[in-house]
Amino acid sequence: MSKLVPVTRTSLKRDARASVEVQNKLERSTNVEDFVREITTEWINVRQRFLIIGQYLVTAKLNIPHGEYIKLINERLPFGRNVAHQLASIYLSVQNEDVPAEALPSSYTTAYRIVRMDPTIRARAMAEGVITPQVTFKTIMRFVKEKHLTDVDDVQKLREERATLQRELDRIMDRASQIRTRLEDIDLELQG
Fold first, then answer.
1. How far apart are CA 54 and CA 190, in angstroms?
2. In the predicted model, what is the mean pLDDT of the chain?
3. When comparing pLDDT for 41 and 143, which is higher?
4. How far, in Å, are 22, 70, 115, 131, 143 from residue 135 at the CA level?
5. Which residue in 80, 119, 82, 78 sits closest to 97, CA to CA?
């Protein structure tokens, strides 16, 4: 992971100069290969940029108070909490070596879907060469659906997990009902 560079007036001026350089280069070029090379380079840079943004978000979350972090996202950043969560999750997954950065596509939504995959299914996707920088969201979703539903053990595990969660929800609802009843009893005792 490259070292984070703070945004400064100098870096903004450098970015503006780079933009002018790109414009000058594009105006002079008529070679298809030049365009392919430049566009491909920039597309690859997108992945690095969303990983850096994820790193900033994780660092901010660790270093500033929770309420301020949420306020920062909601009021000051050009994206909301969902995107912030996705970018931070992708960065953390790369840091945890769940998926190599170079295998991620340049679409952060596709990259997020990859890091959210069941680890077993993600390992299968890696082994089968599905997870590549060129993979699309649609391909990932199709792979997950096929692998998830064709594996009888996975289907059984999902059914068991659903039954367990439903029992837990029923238990919680019963307990909530008991608490409500007790609160009503206490309110009656306090009034009488």
1. 52
2. 84
3. 143
4. 28, 32, 13, 6, 11
5. 119
